[in-house]
Design brief:
This protein is mostly helical. The chain contains 19 helices and no strands. Helix 9 packs antiparallel against helix 13 and helix 12 packs across helix 13.
């Protein structure tokens, strides 16, 4: 009976894809997730673990644990897509209500813009350095504009073009990054040592950063699986998403960890100089890899940002929303380039505070209703839990340069608020939100919500 209702639901919920449009092939799930963190920022994150005080062993622990957490949550949300045929933020309506999901969509849009800037800053500088090798001047804003133009072109045309870019450009990037990694590690690789005692707070902070780098993709996971046939096994989608994201992220972060002794200056210019020093005559290969690497994930990011603006209530066509998102990321990259490392680390940890509780309730809702869509309210239990848990956990548990909460101070500066928020939100939602079964799905979405 549930399977029958689920089959009917996806075809009658407004903006959910009908079966004849769900024709995406499975390998694209892997590539869409694989390209997400194949970025210079991911390599830099591995080095950043050492800069924050970890040695090789504890840095490796942070990479493994952080990615296990982050990749699991991303894959769980990605596996929701085929069952609803909806974008990730539109799927949020089932746990948060129509009004509540707009709040989540607005938050995710700001994250999309921030990630655009984070990814593009070192990539644009790599492009500038590449031009300089051949005695051609290129200003930072010019390199940034070139990258943004390509990313915008892909995101403008939407899901299918973005998926193709992710798949085929990844083939090129695998070769380029493999050459860069081998040369860099052979020339400057070393097992990092700590200059002072490694504290639990440092390890937890490192786990938070690595988890944040992967979990930031969770609020758009279903955007790139919803075109799969509705009969696709949830477990298959999960493992393709998990493996794609985990393989690229862990390998690049490990490269950063192994070359951290030569990437000690994590200013924007310092990163590029470090890569030039590590790769020597192969520097052009490294710079091409660093520059091209931002195109697939930022095209994905800008397309999702367009979805989010519309889900947040802005009544404009998706391609205009994608353009606006891309341009905002361009401006922030220009303004924040000089503070790249600080902005990067703070963004990764702070983003967990809202994504953690959101993820928890999304997964619980999916499990409670066995993937079937159900009646949507304007403001739901999940939205109420969200607006309480997020600020409270941040106030009590946050431990960063921006703010340290009272409980974080009591436990030696260990930042565990995102984990506490995830657990409390998930458990509370599971207790309060009794399974309502697969209720009528004839609840129509107001006109203007995102559709491809």
């Amino acid at each position: 009976m549930n399977a029958l209702i689920e089959d009917v639901s996806a075809s009658i919920v407004h903006d959910g894809l009908s079966s004849d449009r769900q024709t995406m092939t499975l390998e694209k799930v892997f590539w869409a997730h694989f390209c997400t963190n194949m970025l210079p920022a991911t390599w830099v994150l591995g080095a950043l673990l050492v800069v924050t005080g970890l040695d090789f062993k504890t840095g490796l622990l942070a990479i493994v644990v952080g990615n296990l957490i982050g990749c699991t949550l991303v894959a769980a949300n990605s596996s929701i897509g085929p069952k609803t045929g909806l974008t990730q933020m539109e799927t949020s309506r089932f746990a948060f209500g129509f009004i509540g999901k707009r709040m989540c969509a607005a938050l995710n849009w700001t994250g999309s813009v921030a990630w655009d800037a984070v990814a593009n800053v070192p990539a644009a500088l790599a492009l500038v350095a590449l031009f300089a090798i051949y005695h051609a001047g290129l200003p930072f804003w010019g390199g940034l504009a070139m990258l943004v133009a390509v990313q915008l072109a892909a995101s403008y045309y939407g899901h299918h073009v973005v998926q193709l870019v992710a798949k085929y450009l990844c083939y090129v990037l695998i070769v380029l990054f493999s050459v860069t990694a081998v040369v860099a590690i052979l020339k400057g690789g070393a097992l990092a040592t700590a200059h002072a005692a490694v504290t639990p707070a440092m390890i937890v902070f490192g786990i938070g950063m690595t988890a944040g780098a992967t979990i930031s993709f969770a609020p758009c996971g279903a955007d790139y699986t919803r075109y799969l046939p509705r009969t696709t096994k949830t477990s298959t989608v999960f493992w393709l998403a998990f493996s794609g994201l985990a393989i690229s992220t862990v390998l690049l972060e490990l490269c950063g960890l192994l070359t951290a002794n030569r990437l000690t200056d994590l200013s924007t210019n310092g990163i590029i100089k470090g890569f030039a020093d590590l790769t020597g005559p192969f520097a052009p290969v490294a710079f091409i890899a660093l520059a091209l690497a931002t195109i697939p994930p930022n095209a994905i990011n800008d397309n999702t940002g367009g979805y989010c603006l519309i889900s947040a209530g802005l009544r404009i066509p998706r391609h205009f929303a994608a353009i606006f998102t891309t341009l905002c990321g361009f401006v922030i990259a220009l303004v924040g380039a000089a503070k790249f490392a600080d902005l990067f680390s703070n963004y990764l940890v702070l983003s967990l505070y809202w994504i953690g509780p959101w993820c928890g309730m999304m997964i619980v809702d999916f499990l409670l209703h066995r993937g079937a869509t159900h009646r949507v309210r304007q403001w739901s239990t999940g939205a109420t839990i969200f607006v309480v848990i997020v600020p409270v956990t941040f106030y009590l548990f946050s431990a960063s340069e921006l703010y340290t909460g009272p409980i974080a101070k009591m436990i030696g500066g260990i930042d565990i608020g995102y984990a506490v928020g995830f657990v409390i939100a998930s458990v509370t939602y599971a207790i309060v939100e009794r399974p309502r079964g697969a209720e009528s799905t004839l609840t129509l979405l107001p006109a203007g919500e995102p559709a491809e």
